[in-house]
Amino acid sequence: MQNIKFYNGNTMPQLGLGVFRVENDDTAKDAVKHAIVNGYRSIDAALVYGNEEMVGLGIQEGMAEAGIQREDLFITSKLWLDQYGKDNVIKGYQTSIDNLGLDYLDLYLIHWPGTDEALTIDTWKGMEALYEAGKVKNIGVSNFNIEHLEALKNQTSIKPVINQVEFHPYFTQESLRNYLATTDIHMESWSPLMNAEILTDETINAIAEEVGKSAAQVVIRWNIEHGVVTIPKSVTPHRIEENINVFDFSLTEEQVARIDALNQNKRIGPNPLEFNG
Length: 277
Known about the structure:
This is Aldo/keto reductase. This protein is of the alpha/beta class. The chain is built from ten helices and ten strands. The chain has one domain (3-260): TIM Barrel (Alpha-Beta Barrel), CATH 3.20.20. Helix 2 packs across helix 3 and helix 7 crosses helix 8 (215-225). The longest helix is centred in the middle third of the chain and has 16 residues, at 117-132.
């Protein structure tokens, strides 16, 4: 497993398991456990997913079966919009770690920028306080555009280590990626496989034939080639295993360029400029 390094010196696995839209039952527990046993060390959760309790059980069972310790894992969760405001951040954080059965998070994110800039800035100041108190190892944001990040930079003192956003071959976010690279903030992709929509693309499948891998592995590897952290979601054991098996091959510059050329600026999720929960 490859790691990326944050500007604060901490590291994060470049590939993890996402658990969005996974039921809060054995489905979540078993997926997380299977991922950890099969080499995943990063789990991406969120309070609003409503499944932190079973994700937490999967973490505990996975650690036990894999023979690893808490410090071997990198666990992320996110603060939802109804808990924004500096004074609410610690409550939201505590709820998530209690749900997950953990003592701390490796990464805590503001889930969306929202449409009230002053409230978002105030919330980020609560994230800064959480970080400065040593309660969380890293803080970041999710679904922020350049203007949201500029507002943070101009009004707060600690920049995010990462920005988790929609990123896939039909929505390559080149300007945002370039901006993040210049500001030393990493990009992380959610729904990198577009809820499986991208897996039928002719170009992706042609490249999969060329490299002897699956379409999903090609898209995940494309994320890796771009230096993007990625968290494909699956609850199917063989797909969980397949999705992490992307570090034994690479794509050529020409193959990466062919995938880049698929961009349609097509979102499958909300526009961050308009979304407020």
